[in-house]
């Protein structure tokens, strides 16, 4: 397999992969889960060994950061054991986890010792009643306590807040106070039209410029510069009177497509090259094919990266009220051609080898 780094048609180098280990979650967040949602059958989910193999391909192609997500990753049995195996096998890759923090308490010491660099915790409200209305579960106190436990264990903690107009705008002072008191990165993310049955509308977006203006009324901030700045899309601000930082991510109002460096691997083995695209490249059938396997997965990843689009153009053309990144996935024509050609070559080789054995 080639070791040249992944670069797309726009010259963007891909070095970051988000890997979903499960589509299941113990919360039912109203902006995420639709009523008719069906979970992926277990045989279709990538095995941990397969994810490790795909991580190996990514690392050989220059991927140096991998974030594990879900659903909720800690819902999947054996996830902590898998994390430790991944950290041991790929010491040069930065490993991070995104979690809702409802289930992590028993794993916090192992997370801190495993080499996982960062834990992103989703928390959209500081009001226990509102938390239950948003998530469908009365688990706010567990999440809030686990944030403190993760910080005390020495983990680098980011708290992600989906910024929703009419939902949590009134809680900005509380969130700023949280960043004052804890050494965390508290990041506001504009609500995006993602998923089947999305409740997104333009009125539901709490814009980044309004978030920043509100933060500046509550605290003295200054932009983070130099080496302290994140590699990612968040614009980070130091709180002069606090321990933490405030971050703002604006995929809707101020896209960062020109610097996008990521791929996404779904739990059922589909590769997505853009947050706003429903196009997928099916890796699992190739990975599990006895005559194809990892070398052909490598080729598909390379071809897919070349087709990586500028996502903001897809967002601009999206019909009003529609959601992107749905389950109605469209296979790529390039992927299909590669698979057909690969299967033909593999079958031809099998026939030739069989003839040689008989000769």
Protein model, in words:
There is one protein chain. With 359 residues, the protein is α/β, with parallel strands linked by helices. The protein has a single domain, classed as TIM Barrel (Alpha-Beta Barrel). The chain has helices spanning 48-60, 79-89, 108-114, 128-135, 140-152, 172-181, 208-218, 284-288, 294-306, 311-316, 333-358; strands at 6-7, 13-14, 16-20, 65-69, 94-99, 118-122, 156-163, 185-190, 221-223, 235-239, 245-249, 262-265, 270-272, 279-282, 330-331. The chain has a 13-stranded mixed beta sheet. A two-stranded antiparallel ribbon has the order 1-2.
Supply the key terms.
single chain; alpha/beta; TIM Barrel; 11 helices; 18% strand
How do you describe this structure in short?
By secondary structure, the protein is α/β, with parallel strands linked by helices.
**Proportion of helical residues:** 25-40%
Q: Which segments are poorly predicted (pLDDT under 50) over 5 or more consecutive residues?
A: none
**Strand-residue fraction?**
15-25%
Quickly count the helices: 11
Cα distance spanning the termini: 32 Å
**Mean pLDDT, as a whole number?**
86
CATH topology: TIM Barrel
The total strand number stands at 15
- CATH class equals Alpha Beta
Q: What Rg, in angstroms, do the CA atoms define?
A: 21 Å
* Number of separate domains: 1
Largest sheet, if any?
13 strands, mixed
Classification by helices and strands: alpha/beta
Q: So, CATH architecture?
A: Alpha-Beta Barrel
Order of strands in the sheet with most strands = 9-10-11-8-7-6-5-4-3-12-13-14-15
